[in-house]
Amino acid sequence: MEGDVSNIELLMGPTRSKILRELAYSDKNLDSIAGLLKIGKNAVKEHTDLLEKKGYIQSYFKNEGVGRPKKYFRLTEKGISLFPKQYSLLAKLLIEEIEEDLGQGYLNELLGRVARRMLSSEDVKDHDQSDASREDKIKRLKEFVLSLNRLGYFAKLEIDADRVRIIRHNCIFYELAKTNEQIICGELGKNIVKDGVGTSFTINETVSGEKRTCVVEVRIPEEA
After folding, report:
1. pTM above threshold 0.90
2. Which of 26, 76, 30, 29 is nearest to 53 (CA)?
3. Which of 5, 143, 209, 214 has a C-alpha 20 to 30 A away from that of 196?
4. DSSP letters along 34-93, please?
5. Greater confidence, 76 or 150?
């Protein structure tokens, strides 16, 4: 777990991050935490009081047979969530298994459904805007970009004559896309844009840039 601690240290500081790491292994009392960290019990208590107040750990009493019950600490769900998870690796392996067992066609269909569910969670619905004005279509695109930002894309809109560019600075599937660019950028990304902006928009080109930035150009003809 050593490699997992750096982000928690930035958030919690070195001593509290060590306490959280020890509690990730097993529940512990003040004596055992003080012994492992080689600091006094009063110092440990100050840290555990703060961590408990913020909801990262919770205390309970445990009867160990002789004497008074001892106070133990354990991580809460909020505390567990501080530690990074290998979701991208799990998703990568699932994608590979689905493609191998059921084929590329089924995988593409599945990713399309995933895209629709992601957008529906943001209350983004596909509207036929074939008769809408240019102004209304751009308004629709701005709403779509806001929904992307709520999903974590850090997207912005650039308007230039009859082309509107959606620039996404942070791909939320970045780790997956590094090894599955055709699937993630080509299929899932395409479905997210197509379902988000509506079928009346013509998507001309998707350009994958360096790092986490990609650009989608949507053609909206200028009104006469």
Report:
1. no
2. 76
3. 209
4. HHHHTS-HHHHHHHHHHHHHTTSEEEEEE--SSSSPEEEEEE-HHHHTTS---HHHHHHH
5. 76
